[in-house]
Predict the 3D structure of the following.
Amino acid sequence: MFIDHDFHLHTHLSLCAVGSATAQAYIDNARRFGFKKLGITDHMWDTEHLPMLMKKEDYAEQAYEWLQGYNKQNYTHTLASRAEFDAVEHPDIQVLFGCECEYDYERRDIAITPQVAEQLDLLVVPHSHTHLIMPKRFAESDRTTALFLRDSFMDIVNSPNAKYVTSIAHPFDCNNKNVFRVLSDEEFAECFSAAAAKNIAIEINSSSLEGCCGSFGGVKDAPIMRMFRIAKSCGCQFIFGSDSHSKDGQNNLPYNYIAAAVLELTEQDICPLARS
């Protein structure tokens, strides 16, 4: 299948992105790759869910420092990218404006209010940011990390705000790759069946695949692909993204094509919002 969208892009407004991640760069890339739709998903943590509420002693130092940076990434800051894209001619490319909004462990919910969510074209929830959101006690073993991810996934899909969620980004792909092996088929199926019931798409992320598979040849048998196969069998639809943070961040997009071929995806498996 031909992939004509990228629904996970960070501009320089994300604090972890670089200056080359501009509207002009992404429009130029879209024409080069044949994209008809782009989803701008700069990081955001809604003001009502200030990460300052977290207890420093419960989190790893890196997580605490990262989350304090999110105080700058509110709705006003994140959606400032609209003006930059408006200044670039792109009548052939539809640009959707949303955000990548964290899971808030302290509230066991998505870190966004309905008032903000209703103003977005798309809402991506990064399930696997355990370096940001997971209290350090869950890092004691592969199993405790896996259970944290299982439970947080269910919190996302059962949230009152789940109706606003377009997709779950890089599901279960944390810094501990053993999670893909530790969770059973039944545990994955419980999560993905719940997502399918809420019409929440699952993101296939070229950056994630590159990190998990190491090479194009490794995609077919990678543990992450077992997870995606289960998601498909549960009736989930999919969205593709690069998780780009720079002008060159989309260069790993061939991984998405390989994953689509391995999973034998068709247009009917793609989230309607992403279809041409």
